[in-house]
Amino acid sequence: MAAWKEVDTIKEANPFELIGRDWMLVTAKKQNQINTMTASWGGLGVMWGKNVAYVVIRPQRYTKEFVDGAEAFSLTFFEEAFKQKLSYLGTVSGREEDKIQKSGLTVAMHEQIPYFDEGKLVLFCKKLYAQPMGEAYFLDKQSQQQWYPQKDYHTLYIAEIIHILQKQ
After folding, report:
1. What is the C-alpha separation between 46 and 72, in angstroms, rounded?
2. Could you give the C-alpha distances from 45 to 53, 65, 127, in angstroms and in order?
3. Per-residue pLDDT of the chain (168 residues; tens, 9 = 90+)
4. Is the Cβ–Cβ distance between 165 and 113 less than 8 Å?
5. Beta strands 155-167 and 50-57, pairing class
6. How far out from the chain centre does Cα 79 lie?
7. pTM surpassing 0.85?
């Protein structure tokens, strides 16, 4: 196991780079199973007086079942060297194979929430809100047409960041 330290805030990290460029694994546990998916859309901020993460998941993603069935999930961020593994985890479904085992990454647990030991930063998130996105709510019709030609709109999750672990 790597040396982790619980911290109160994310220091020296740009959320635009963490999410949009470095990517993250969204990981949740349902019963005795764990599933994960790579994500490059989302955000960090403050809502209802709490530090939160915003995550969006399409309905066909297997990981959505796990996030929906869990009270909490993790967001694990990695160094650039893991980009190929993250790409694999984002393109293969956990319905089809044990993609976590095949990736070679190590699942660890923090207060019954799964994450990956190879990461550099982990946000543990307790769900506060979930809402399906819909065509009628898009003010920018070009984005709606570009990103949702199949009308497979994401569900938006807002989750309180309850713990942060940073690699030492």
Report:
1. 18
2. 6, 25, 14
3. 568 988 988 877 888 999 999 899 999 999 999 999 999 999 999 999 999 999 999 999 999 999 999 999 999 999 999 999 999 999 999 999 999 999 999 999 999 999 999 999 999 999 999 999 999 999 999 999 999 999 999 999 999 999 999 998
4. no
5. antiparallel
6. 16
7. yes
CA nearest to 69, candidates 154, 157, 133, 153? 157
Give the Cα separation of 108 and 74 in Å (integer). Answer: 11
Spatial distance between the Cα atoms of 123 and 130, rounded to a whole number of angstroms: 18
Residue 132 to residues 10, 15, 153: CA-CA distances in angstroms? 29, 24, 7
Q: Which residue ranges form the domains of the chain, and what is each CATH number?
A: 4-167 (2.30.110.10)
Q: Which two tokens stand for residue 95?
A: 């319905």
